[in-house]
Write the structure tokens for this entry.
Amino acid sequence: MKYILYILLVAVIFGLVALVDFVFGKLFPKSDLEQHGQVVRLPRYSFILGLLMAVFGLVVVLLLSPKRQLYLWLGALIVMVMGAFLLVNFFSFAIWYDETGFSYRTLTKKKQTFRYTDITGQRSFLARSGVNILLYVDGQEVALYTAMQGLKPFLETAFRAWCAARDVDPDTVQTNPDYLSYFPEQDA
């Protein structure tokens, strides 16, 4: 009976999260670019890992007594907070784009809208996890990496629009699509 109550509690929590998401969706409608444009998101495994960590931590926190097993209970609480952070980070990062420009939002930055002509260059780094990219846009750095969902179509769209806006023939610009290098190299 105790476990059924815990499962019901978890279901109620997820239901409340869905309700809050619905209410926020009605209070803060999405822009036209968010509704009709394409999107770049963080990798799906960060959502899955965050969900597993949050649920596992919550179950352990609910099952254990903090009086008897304080350190294990605190560890589970930390795991739950880390999972919640991964989920919040996953849902707060997005790049919406279309043929005219893109909007960029992260956990720590408000949504900013850029045109492709604002791109001044990029730097690509090869790491164990894949290719990491710093896209320099209007004096800011946009950090990207290969595991992101929809990254390559975004960079290809941005490159085509950037070339068209600057009247540059795309064949004259040195690119390397295998390493997602489309724009001129930017010095640090």
Observations:
- The mean pLDDT is 85.
- The beta strands are 38-40, 94-97, 101-105, 112-115, 119-127, 130-137, 140-145.
